[in-house]
Write a structure and sequence with these properties.
alpha/beta, two-stranded antiparallel ribbon, single chain, 14 helices, globular, 9-stranded mixed beta sheet
Length: 383
């Protein structure tokens, strides 16, 4: 089995002019977007460019004695990838610019993006997915009742800024929330900019409301969007999507398949499978029913109550979050009998009820299939 690190061994000596930019390259740059480029020692915030080789070498020099990590969510292999890309003929001379990284607790926004000139006259905008910050996860949850969220608005502004400054065709993409931002920006940008977009890649990214998907501007870009999800996708099935998507094989299981390093490749493309797993489909339907069973106001109250618990711990990142502190706050809330406890309890009961219902339905389907094989006609059953 091979992932995109093996791809770099196979095709890393071929420039983009020799072998055109493809979906695996797109995923690699979307993964690179998790690097904090401020730690390279270069100012990449504006028009000035630095090659991946220059940035990677200086980053390695500055942090040679440090144990780097990106928290609980993002694999630490991202740092290895950065080093490999800085020595890869295919990527080393690509130029970085317009790096943005903003965390705003008051606005509840986590936004980051980097622009990469590919060396063939075109460029790729890579939007970062959700990082380790609590505010980043809060913004993700806000999507269930708020549209647009602040990072989506900024993604459109960022696209316009870069498109105005640079010539050539535009590639856009991102992993997790980054893919959502890429699609939203492509949908809501000026038509002149949209005309320049060659491809948008969304890697296991949450979807949108039906209102977004029904827009003419979305339909105008839809045939240039590639959605890629792993077999047991849990993140990429959230909210609403168009029916078409590509399913990639993964060496991980369940939620851990969100790890892009586990995705399998062959040559210059992914190893595809027929469809997402049955368990992923059940979770998809259950989560959608859970969300739509609540009013928009109830969803907002649920998210506020949930993140009130996290914020009470004083943690700013998931890495700082301690389960013991969360449990202590929940126990305190239970004794106080406050509104937050009631909202969380109601939501939990609803979720359990929905999951039980889907589990029963799945057992029924399995039983009916077995009886069909045995040529026994099932009697009507009621849940």
């Amino acid at each position: 089995m091979a992932n995109f690190m093996d791809y770099l061994d196979w095709r890393g000596e071929l420039t983009v002019k020799q072998s055109p930019f493809n979906s695996i390259d797109h995923l690699i740059l979307s993964t690179l977007a998790y690097i904090d480029f401020e730690q390279t020692g270069f100012d990449l915030s504006g028009r000035s460019t630095v090659t991946i080789k220059e940035a990677g070498e200086k980053f390695s020099l500055l942090h040679a004695d440090e144990k780097m990590n990106l928290g609980r969510v993002i694999p630490d292999e991202v740092f290895v990838l950065f080093d490999v890309l800085s020595r890869s003929r295919r990527f080393c001379d690509m130029k970085l610019s317009y790096y943005v990284n903003q965390i705003d607790e008051l606005e509840e926004k986590q936004f980051s993006a980097i622009t990469v000139e590919l060396g063939d006259g075109n460029f790729c905008i890579a939007f970062r997915g959700t990082d380790d910050t609590i505010v980043g996860w809060k913004e993700d949850f806000n999507m269930c009742f708020q549209s647009p969220v602040p990072s989506q608005i900024q993604a459109v502004e960022y696209l316009h800024q870069v498109a105005l400054a640079k010539r050539g065709k535009i590639y856009m993409g991102g992993h997790s929330k980054g893919g959502n931002l890429a699609i939203y920006a492509a949908t809501c940008c000026h038509p002149f900019v949209r005309h320049r977009i060659r491809k948008v890649c969304s890697f296991d990214s949450p979807g949108f409301t039906q209102e977004i998907l029904q827009r003419d501007s979305y339909k105008a870009i839809a045939d240039r969007i590639q959605r890629v999800v792993p077999q047991s996708s849990m993140i990429g099935i959230l909210f609403e999507h168009e029916a078409q998507y590509d399913v990639v094989a993964s060496t991980q299981i369940g939620l851990f398949q969100h790890d892009m390093f586990s995705w399998q490749v062959l040559g210059n493309d992914f190893v595809y499978v027929d469809d997402i797993s049955a368990s992923s489909t059940r979770v998809e339907y259950a989560m959608k029913e859970f969300i739509y069973a609540m009013s928009v106001e109830e969803r907002q109250k649920f998210v506020e109550a949930l993140f009130y618990v996290f914020e009470e711990t004083g943690a700013k990142t998931l890495s700082q979050l301690k389960i013991k502190e969360v449990i202590a706050i929940l126990r305190r809330m239970n004794k106080e009998d406050n509104d937050n406890r009631k909202i969380l309890s109601q939501a939990l009961r609803l979720m359990v009820q929905i999951l039980e219902e889907y589990s029963q339905q799945q057992l029924l389907k399995q039983a009916e299939k077995q009886m069909e094989k045995m040529k026994i006609l099932p009697r009507k059953k009621q849940l």
